[in-house]
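Predict fold of HK97 family phage prohead protease; 200 aa.
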Amino acid sequence: MTDTEKRIAQQIELRADDTGAKTLAGYAAKFNTPTGIADYFIEQIAPGAFSETIKGDVRCLFNHQSDNVLGRTTSGTLRLWEDDVGLRFEVDLPDTTLGKDVGTLVERRDVNGMSFGFRAVKQSWDDTTEPPSRTLEKVEISEISIVTFPAYPDTSVGLRSLEAARAEGAAQNAAAARRRVAEKRAAMEQRIRGIRQDAS
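Predicted 3D structure, encoded as tokens:
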């Protein structure tokens, strides 16, 4: 995924069954929760933003590292769904050194952060507020992560997103202005032609 942004999410909980198998659960993201992205903009996620992407192949990683795989939707070891609160997840920790280590770290509360990487597919901006407001209406994710340091957030990516959105907005405004000028010219030409036709 190009231009991937990362956001922290909520705390996670650990469950264990009688066999000792461990499952992590929680929310990878919450809806309608305005969050400040440094000093650049306020962001929130709209309900339904993940509805399409969670049908695909999503992995659960440790610290966003692709070689630290803890679960995967296509194998059934990671389960993702939306509810009224946000993007819910459950991941069955593997019987590996990494899985055992992560389970122990979460159980001890040494690690309790979640994060997810995403690419905005559809978004809206309100540039009348200070700072501007961004609503993520549709996103693509390829991974969620249990993280040691849920550092918040990648401000350089956030700044690029804001600049890109403003540039896009300026381009749309310019295009709209050009359309209005063209429409006025067309209307004037029609009036002139009508007058000429009447005169003839």
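The two ends are 64 Å apart (CA to CA).
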